[in-house]
Amino acid sequence: MPAFDLSAFLDGHPVATFVIDTTHTITHWNKACEHLLGWSTAEMVGTQNHWQAFYPKQRALLADLIVSGVDPAASEYYREKHKRSALIPGAYEDEDFFPNIGASGHWLHFTAAPLRDAGGRVAGAIQTLRDVTERRVAENALRKAHDNLEHLVEKRTAQLAEANQRLEDDIRQRELADAELRRRNIELTALNEQLGMTQQQLLQSEKLASIGQLAAGVAHEINNPIGYIFSNFGTLQSYLGSLFDALQAYRDAEPHVADAAVAERLRAMREELDLDFLREDIPSLMNESKEGIVRVRHIVQDLKDFSRVDANQEWVWANLHQGIDSTLNIVSNEVKYKADVVKQYGDIPDIQCLPLQLNQVVMNLVVNAAHAIGAERGTITVRTGADDAGEQVWLEVRDTGGGIAPDNLSRIFDPFFTTKPIGKGTGLGLSMAYGIVRKHNGSITVHSTVGAGTTFRVLLPVRHEEAQPGPAPEQGPGPA
Ligand SMILES: Nc1ncnc2c1ncn2[C@@H]1O[C@H](COP(=O)(O)OP(=O)(O)OP(=O)(O)O)[C@@H](O)[C@H]1O
Ligand SMILES: [Mg+2]
Fold first, then answer.
1. What pLDDT shows up at residue 416?
2. Residue 465: what pLDDT?
């Protein structure tokens, strides 16, 4: 036994403490224990009823397990609830709520440790209990507050996510509306452009139709007089030949004129008229005039082609490529010093056409292309192709020349519109080409970029159908 009274020591100790011996009999139950648990020392010491202070049914406490040498981990009451004490070897700790202690129950923290005798054998166990209700209540409140906060945060996060989703939906809808608006705008712009172009084409074809009427009238009026002037010219030339022969005969007879006065008059007259010069000059004047008349005849023919007055031509099935090749040969002198000609022929069917007239169209387009190319060597590309349905073929002449000023684009098909110097161009090439293409019920369009080049595109139906009586739909030329 210790030198001091353990009961007195424990009673003075502020921590609730009880001790049991190896028979689980309570040997000490201090004042603090009495106070905390409401069971008096007199009631408890000498009994094995310490469980009564805590539980409604008998069961082992930590101190009992230590005395019995049972590991709490193997006890059905403790298993995972207990902890090994970090300070005292062989001691255990445990914390639990006891609803029957006090008015509304208490949280108690237990520490139970073995008491050993001098030989180190377990002679009993001491168990202390600390009231940790306040701490646990505070902890609980804290946990609750924390849980509340977490719940609140979760709720707010969900609300935020929802608002975000709504915002995203809103943005998506706005983007859709925006895209739709932009699409509509593009459509409208394209429609507007098309409208402008159609209007321009309409104006252009109306203008060309009235010019065509005028040209047809002029061609008709000039054609007859030019016809007889041309044929009279042939006759006149042969008459002149005869006259010169007669004059020569008179001249040869001059030395044989007996009357000196007559002979002198003849000589003076010959000198005054400079008959020798006339003999040389008249044929050259005649030739020049004849060339002029031939040119006028050409112009009249071009005007007729433009106004489509000649209807008595043969429509035949022909291959466009043959015509293009032969035309390129004819104009090769005009082209070869200025540009390389690239041919890109597609697979096209024969078409029903007026081949010689189409050759003229090609010739005009190619010569114009060559003229448009400046000092630097360029390229003229001739392409052909057919539409998918096989009902139309197209022909393109593209050059790398100077291009056409936008102001001139609407005028290039007008008869006599030319930007070339006087004597270089009559301005009839494109108007004639337009007339010929129209006669084929086709269309001719132009696309040009100043400084980069020009492309003329001719679209022709494969089969020729005679125009129905009545107003045919006008397909004017125009910028493509
Ligand atoms: N490929 C082209 N590049 C640039 N301008 C062109 C081209 N084709 C035609 N033009 C312009 O169109 C005008 C009219 O052409 P068009 O063929 O009707 O007459 P022209 O070539 O001037 O004379 P003509 O063909 O009667 O000898 C030309 O003067 C030129 O200004
Ligand atoms: Mg021309």
1. 84
2. 86
What pLDDT is recorded for position 298? 82
350 Cα to the center of ligand 2, angstroms: 27
CATH code of the domain in which 378 resides: 3.30.565.10
Residue whose CA is at the smallest distance from ligand 1 atom 17? 429
Regarding whether 245 and 221 lie in a shared domain, the answer is yes
Tell me: the pLDDT tens digits for 326-366?
Answer: 889 888 888 999 999 999 999 999 999 998 889 889 989 99
Atom of ligand 1 nearest to the CA of 418: 29
pLDDT in tens, 188-201: 999 998 888 778 77
User: Is the pLDDT confidence value at 441 over 80?
Assistant: yes
Rg of the chain (C-alpha set): 62
Dist. CA 379 → ligand 1 center (Å)? 17
Rounded CA separation 72/84 (Å): 9
Both 63 and 146 in a single domain? no
How far away, in angstroms, is 430 Cα from ligand 1 center? 7
SS3 114: strand
Q: 414, 437 in Cβ contact below 8 A?
A: no
Alpha carbons within 13 angstroms on the beta-carbon side of residue 142 total 6
Nearest CA to ligand 1 atom 29: 418
Q: Which residues line ligand 1 (CB under 6 A)?
A: 364, 368-369, 372, 399, 401, 404, 412, 417-420, 425-431, 454
Residue to substitute in 430, 432, 444 for testing ligand 1 pocket (most ligand atoms within 8 angstroms of CB): 430
Residue 175's SS3 state is helix
pLDDT surpassing 80 at residue 222: yes
- Of ligand 1's atoms, which has the minimum distance to the CA of residue 401? 3
End residue of a domain, out of 131, 154, 176: 131
More confident residue, 16 or 276: 16
Same domain, 19 and 158: no
Most ligand 1 atoms within 8 A of CB, residue of 368, 382, 410 to mutate:
368
Q: What is the CATH number of the domain that holds 27?
A: 3.30.450.20
Residue of 373, 381, 414, 418 best suited for mutating to test ligand 1, as the one with most atoms within 8 Å of CB? 418
User: Contact, 454 vs 372, CB < 8 A?
Assistant: yes
Does residue 1 form part of some domain?
no
Same domain, 475 and 346: yes
Q: Give residue 308's pLDDT.
A: 60
Say yes or no: 207 and 117 in one domain. Answer: no
What ligand is nearest to the CA atom of residue 454?
1
Is residue 417 located within the same domain as residue 336?
A: yes
Q: Which domain holds residue 222?
A: 139-307
- Note whether 322 and 345 are within 8 A (CB): no
Phi and psi angles of residue 167, each rounded to the nearest 5 degrees, phi first: -65, -45
